[in-house]
Design a protein that fits this description.
The complex is a heterodimer of chains A (220) and B (54). With 220 residues, chain A is an all-alpha fold. Chain A has a domain of 145 residues: Fumarate Reductase Cytochrome B subunit (Up-down Bundle), CATH 1.20.950. Chain A contains seven helices and two strands, in the order E-H-H-H-H-H-H-E-H. A two-stranded antiparallel ribbon of chain A has the order 1-2. Chain B is α+β, with helices and mostly antiparallel strands and 54 residues long. Chain B has a two-stranded antiparallel ribbon with strand order 1-2. Classes of the chains: A mainly alpha (220), B alpha+beta (54). Chains A and B meet through helix 5 of A and strand 2 and helix 1 of B. The structure holds protoporphyrin IX containing FE (HEM). Protoporphyrin IX containing FE binds next to helix 1, helix 2, helix 4 and helix 5 of chain A.
């Protein structure tokens, strides 16, 4: 994470005190993933809810695009970014406990987090698990459909194994619906508008950095 | 309420598992809405307590 060098845009901020939170590439990843997930949800569930249309081509092509995005994200996070920002450690578990206690009446002051707080890290872990499940099962399910690139070949797996693969895809898909709803709630909550702005424009202000983050855990 | 979908075997054998049951979709949506309501209520109460003790 680095201090943004003043330029034509940032110079307009009082005292240039902007701290970069997300690079352009990471913001592009976030919004492309959001778009892909919304298209996948719509193409999967509208027909199930009775709105019939030719969903399968849009679905599998968007699915392959999502798989590529996720792969790029994993490579970037492991080799080009600091994956420790998202690692759940003991301090996070303590923080989670204090947050929960704070919600039900404890007066302990929650400690300031690093770049991401414990709840965000836990959320990321949940998203990672269900997205990997839906992408993994979805890639296998490509064998069950005809496309311009290959003919279907359902004999790779037994009927029982296919059943399990479809169950995984279906449950992960419904979990994603729940996760998206909860994500929208937290993203649109006034307390976290500065994070929404950071996901659009990349930065948080120096004041927001000091107010919401422990500089020892997220070095500016 | 079913958890899974099965297809009837045309040969009269046992039913074949073919996927998750879509009856569960409203439950996933409901769980998300319940989580939001509980969180919103608890954080509103926590804020009120904080204002009072300030
Ligand atoms: C947000 C992500 C996704 C959601 C919500 C989703 C949802 C669904 C649902 C509900 C079905 C119907 C399954 C059934 O009939 O049991 C389905 C089918 C399918 N999905 Fe996905 N999916 C997602 C991602 C993916 C990905 C990443 C791929 C591929 C890489 C993929 C490929 C497929 C294929 C090929 C089928 C059709 C299988 C067939 O008709 O035999 N999906 N998806």
């Amino acid at each position: 994470m680095d201090q943004i060098t003043p330029n034509r845009w940032t110079a307009r901020a009082p005292g240039f005190d902007r701290v970069r939170r997300h690079t352009l590439l990471d913001r592009a990843y976030h919004w492309l993933m959001a778009l892909a997930v919304l298209v996948l949800m719509a193409t999967a569930f509208l027909p199930i809810l009775g709105i019939k249309f030719a969903w399968l081509d849009i679905h599998w092509i968007t699915g392959v695009a999502l798989a590529a995005l996720v792969l790029i994200h994993i490579v970037r996070a492991l080799f080009f970014q600091d994956w420790r920002n998202m690692w759940i450690g003991l301090a996070d578990l303590r923080e989670l406990w204090r947050d929960a206690a704070g919600l039900v009446g404890s007066r302990q002051r929650p400690a300031l987090p690093g770049k991401y707080d414990a709840a965000q890290k836990l959320y990321h872990l949940g998203v990672a698990v269900v997205i990997l499940a839906v992408v993994g099962s979805g890639l296998l399910m490509l064998l069950k459909i005809d496309t311009p690139f290959w003919r279907r070949n359902p004999y790779w797996f037994s009927a029982d194994t296919w059943g399990v693969i479809y169950v995984i895809h279906g449950f992960a898909a419904m979990a994603i619906v729940a996760i998206v709803i909860v994500h929208l709630y937290f993203a649109l909550m006034p307390d976290s508008w500065y994070l929404l702005r950071a996901m659009v424009r990349g930065w948080i202000s120096g004041k927001e950095y000091a107010q919401h983050h422990d500089p020892a855990r997220w070095k500016a | 309420m079913e958890l899974f979908r099965y297809s009837r075997s045309i040969y009269g054998g046992s039913d074949q598992l073919i996927g998750a049951s879509w009856d569960l979709l409203p439950w996933f949506v409901g769980a998300a809405v319940l989580f939001i309501v509980v969180h919103a209520v608890l954080s509103a109460l926590a804020k009120r307590r904080a204002r009072r003790s300030a």
